[in-house]
Amino acid sequence: MKSIDPLVDVYRRRMMKHTVTCSVTLWLLWFGVNAAAAQPERPNIVIIVADDLGWNDVSFHGSNQIPTPNIDALAYDGIILNRHYVPPLCTPSRATLMTGKHPMNIGMQDHVILSDEPWGLGLDQKLMPEYFREAGYRTHLVGKWHLGFFRRAYTPTYRGFDSHFGYLGPYIDYWDHSLQMNETSARGLDMRRNTDINYSANGTYATDLFNEEAVRIIDTHDQSQPLFLVLTHLAPHTGNEDDPMQAPVDEIAKFRHIQDPKRQTLAAMVGRIDTGVGRIYRALEERNMLTNTILLFYADNGAPTLGTHANSGSNYPLRGQKYTPWEGAVRGAALIWSSLLPRKSVVSEQWIHVSDWLPTLGFAAGIKSIPTGTTIDGQNQWFTLLSADSSGRAVVMNNADHRFGYSSYMKLGWKYVNGTCFAGAYDTWLGELIDNSNVTEEEYYNRLMDVTSIGSSMRLSPDKVQELRQAATVSCGDEAAEIRCDPLQKPCLFNIVDDPCERRNLADLHPDVLRDLQSDVVRYKRNALPRRNKPADSRADPALHNNTWTWWQDTVDEDRSSHYILYLAAAVEILIILFIIWCGQKYYTRSGAKK
Q1: What is the DSSP letter of 544?
Q2: Per DSSP, what are the bridge partners of residue 79?
């Protein structure tokens, strides 16, 4: 019998699936013990995601303005992923990491989830932590979720994570952890430990709070099970509009060389992330877990230099910024470090998409249940990481955005752009650092090798560091050779390998290539699932829920259930009273008859 509630159907299907799985597992248990004992130890997985971090806001890409010594040390000792692609916005990017699927294939391609909107990543999707938990991992999420919470079933601990400490919506105040959607809405607390509201963290800087929690998890981890830890930072995303740029005073003081006050605060926000990376590395080292750990660091999308939630981040010299079709939105800073990877101190130009991490890390962990996807879904890139001879992927669909109607797509080194957002306001090369407020090369290297940095434990010579930074720095070539592109008038085409800054529009010179990519985009758009977006629901207002953001539709259902119970209790009470009266009348009638 089909339920009237589609969520119930989802749960019923999952329960049947789990029942079959359990039966098969019990049948094979005696056979698998010896085989499991012979398998190599599964690696710990640690993923650290920075929110709205610009390409030019980590120093391993060549800029000395914001030194990030701990992040850089991992990059120089590991693999700099110089062509790591992500969706151009927060929610689609996180949905892709969790599912290994492109947002267009799961209805998550259009805009982000606002905290008063009743939608989320579909419950029919199996998420990364579910695969890893089934494989025996302990799974933890620290920080931002942003994949829906209008019902409790959409929250992290119902989606495969053993624990969650952090917030559920798009951003919060760094100190009091409240979220105000706009100037007219109520302000509500959005900080939880698992499903419980956390009040005690009030007053602690959010980045420090999340770093501390990640270290605590590592320190207390039972190593009889492998660790799967995802740390998704708030920083350097802005907080609420009334005070968007926030950082501790002592951290801001470290960046006095930066003249722009807003960018000085941004540097401090990034600096606190960098400190946390160092602390996490040291915690793994102290627990003797480093030799069997894969550590991935990346930006969820490009920085918003201007406009809504602008944090003065720089994607320069890449074109555009967050939520645009350009490289500044989708080509993100990234690195991977692991003693399990024989390639060290290299800059990889192999193409990797964030959807690839589920099958790639799953393969490294020996998880065989992760399915393969289509050409725009995740691909196992483990062999790409092992060898420079492996080609990686050849196709990246950035997005076909419904709200603004733009498309951004890459194939075999060509990039197709049709349409743009915000009437082209952010289509130029933003965030150029023109005030020369940088530390010197010598001071940069000293910070890298300082005893407080993990670089002090790595053999990083100045010449090697300089070589890697130069290889990871994007060069735009001759600006005078620019061929103008106006994607609002007609589609543009770029050779994105030779022209990473998207300055030379070759659409007129290669019409056959343009038509080929255009036909691919039409097919992707035709096959895309309907958008899951829903309009705002006034019942989400935190003023209705003790000034907290919570799963308001569950609350409404619970309130209705409570009302039904009260009505039923009242009805029963009335029936009892009527029965007593009826019995009394019968008694007195019989008594009178006897007399």
Answers
A1: G
A2: 336, 346
DSSP 460: -
* Residue 406, C-beta contacts closer than 8 angstroms, at least 6 positions apart: 325, 399, 400, 417, 418, 419, 420, 421, 487
Cα–Cα distance, 517 to 511 (Å, whole number): 10
61, 84, 111, 146: the catalytic one is 146
434-492: pLDDT as tens digits: 877 899 999 999 999 998 999 999 989 999 999 999 999 999 877 778 999 999 999 99
Q: Find residue 6's DSSP bridge partners.
A: none
Find out whether 346 and 40 touch, Cβ atoms under 8 Å.
no
Residues with Cβ within 8 Å of residue 305, at least 6 apart in sequence: 54, 311, 312, 313, 314, 315, 321, 426, 430, 431
Phi then psi dihedrals of residue 138, to 5 deg: -90, 125
- How does DSSP classify residue 483? B
pLDDT, one tens digit per residue, over 186-206 is 899 999 999 999 999 999 999
Q: Which helix (H) or strand (E) holds 163?
A: strand 163-167
Residue 406 has a pLDDT of 96
Asked about 90 being catalytic, the answer comes back as: yes
Out of 84, 90, 485, 501, the active site residue is 90
Pairing of strands 163-167, 192-193: antiparallel
Whole-angstrom CA distances from 387 to 43, 163, 342, 383 are: 19, 35, 9, 6
84 is a catalytic site residue: no
Q: Which helix (H) or strand (E) holds 487?
A: none
Encoded tokens for 459: 């053999």
The Cα-based distances of 557 to 11, 390, 554, 561 in angstroms read 18, 53, 5, 6
Query: DSSP secondary structure string, 21-53?
Result: HHHHHHHHHHHHHHHHHHSPPPPEEEEEEESS-
